[in-house]
Write a sequence for this structure.
């Protein structure tokens, strides 16, 4: 028990030292450049923790350690995400011809490419916003937008909206949740981080549930129900009674 207690105590001590170090870093103006660079890279390399750095900046504002305002955290986070998204789009657009040549040789791949193009065309704006809150989702969708050659002005507009919403959410949530714990940097950061993580998990669960429901086949009519046919314009039509 003594060894276990020492191990747990050491872990908590390391966490405290780590968050204190983050607070020290975030108390400098140059941390805004870190937020920008990480947000940019995360759009191309989804293993980079962009939301975490924005949360750190928001917590630093909440605890009074930051020499910069909350709007600066939002601005650099949104700018980095926006530029990164457009870099990913350009990469996908550059390789679009290669994907199209592969689609000509492989019908199954062509079907997937056609499906992706239709999904983006139908729900692209909303998808770009929601994908910002799904790990790896933003990279996949921005690359796919370039590969399927979506119009650049359309993509720029929606990625600007998505990046602004994402940065405002992460920084604003950190400020809101972290402010009551301004005297304890460790609690402020970890509570803000856990809250953001919980919300992201909830979004992913809801998205998965809705996707599963939309994929379910329609229910078969009960035995004895009157059969219907389809009219020329696609609307259901009951067959005329005998004798008419």
């Amino acid at each position: 028990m003594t060894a276990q207690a020492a191990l747990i105590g050491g872990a908590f001590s390391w966490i405290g030292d780590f968050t204190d170090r983050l607070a020290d870093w975030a108390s400098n103006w140059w941390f805004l450049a870190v937020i920008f660079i990480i947000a940019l890279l995360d759009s191309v390399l989804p293993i980079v923790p962009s939301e975490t750095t924005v949360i750190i900046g928001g917590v630093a504002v909440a605890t009074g350690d930051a020499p910069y305002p909350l709007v600066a955290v939002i601005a650099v986070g949104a700018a980095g995400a926006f530029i990164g998204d457009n870099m990913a789009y350009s990469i996908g657009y550059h390789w679009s011809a290669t994907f199209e040549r592969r689609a000509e040789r492989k019908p199954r791949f062509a079907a997937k490419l056609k499906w992706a193009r239709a999904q983006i065309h139908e729900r692209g704006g909303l998808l770009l916003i929601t994908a910002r809150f799904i790990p790896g989702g933003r990279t996949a969708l921005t690359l796919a937008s370039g590969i399927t050659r979506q119009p650049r002005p359309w993509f720029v507009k929606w990625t600007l909206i998505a990046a602004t919403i994402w940065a405002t959410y992460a920084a604003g949530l950190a400020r809101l949740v972290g402010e009551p714990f301004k005297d304890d940097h460790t609690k402020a950061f970890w509570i803000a981080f856990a809250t953001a993580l919980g919300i992201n998990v909830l979004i992913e669960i809801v998205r998965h549930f809705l996707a599963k429901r939309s994929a379910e086949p329609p229910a078969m009519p009960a035995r004895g129900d009157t059969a219907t046919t389809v009219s020329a314009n696609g609307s259901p039509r009951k067959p005329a009674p005998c004798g008419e």
User: Anything to note?
Assistant: The first strand starts at residue 229 and ends at 230. The beta strands are 229-230, 236-237.
